[in-house]
UniProtKB/TrEMBL annotation:
SUPFAM superfamilies: Acyl-CoA N-acyltransferases (Nat)
Protein name: GNAT family N-acetyltransferase
Domain of life of the native organism: Bacteria
Pfam families, sorted: Acetyltransf_4
UniProt source species: Panacibacter microcysteis
Length: 176
């Protein structure tokens, strides 16, 4: 386990899958993810199994609260490109359906993962695609970690009967 002050990151275990699936299927969460379909147990298990076969490309973690040891979310560095040393950042706090909390757990867990990416994996760039209506996450990463907007993909998401832009934001190792 990689420990911070409030949270720890550990390998995702099979017993985490039902809770992670339930959080991913929350409509208020799912609308922010590129995978918009409702996930079933079989697709969740297939995803878990793919983590084992893509272990040098996808680094996913369960986020646990150190004090209680309880699962509170998930995060990861995905689609790692080892040539340009970049990774797609995936992150949410599922506990109490928070998504991004104001209690410091999200800040702690994100800090752990960002540090792991730059210091242990020697990444150069950590990036993410966020829909423009995901204001809480955009603000969180830009204000707390200095993520910069790299670009905008126009009309790249369809939600609630209309199109929205995607923002590509990133943090370079030299920005830290």
């Amino acid at each position: 386990m990689i420990k911070g002050k409030l949270t720890g990151l550990r390998a995702i275990e099979q017993e985490d899958l039902n809770q992670l699936k339930d959080w991913r299927n929350l409509p208020q969460f799912r609308r922010n993810f590129r995978e918009v379909r409702e996930l079933g147990s079989q697709s969740q298990l297939a995803w878990f199994n793919s983590l084992q076969t893509n272990s040098n490309r996808d680094f996913m973690f369960s986020i646990v609260e150190l004090e209680s040891g309880k699962l509170i979310g998930a995060c990861g560095l995905l689609y790692i490109n080892w040539i340009i040393r970049s990774a797609d950042f995936s992150f949410y706090i599922g506990k109490d359906e928070l998504y991004i909390d104001d209690e410091g757990m999200a800040l702690d867990a994100a800090t752990i993962l960002i540090n792991y990416g730059f210091e242990n994996l020697n990444l150069h760039k950590i990036w993410m695609e966020l829909y423009e209506f995901d204001e809480k996450k955009i603000k969180f990463f830009q204000q707390n970690f200095n993520f910069k907007t790299d670009g905008v993909l126009r009309d790249n998401c369809y939600e609630d009967g209309r199109y929205y832009n995607s923002l590509i934001i990133s943090l370079l190792a030299t920005d830290k």
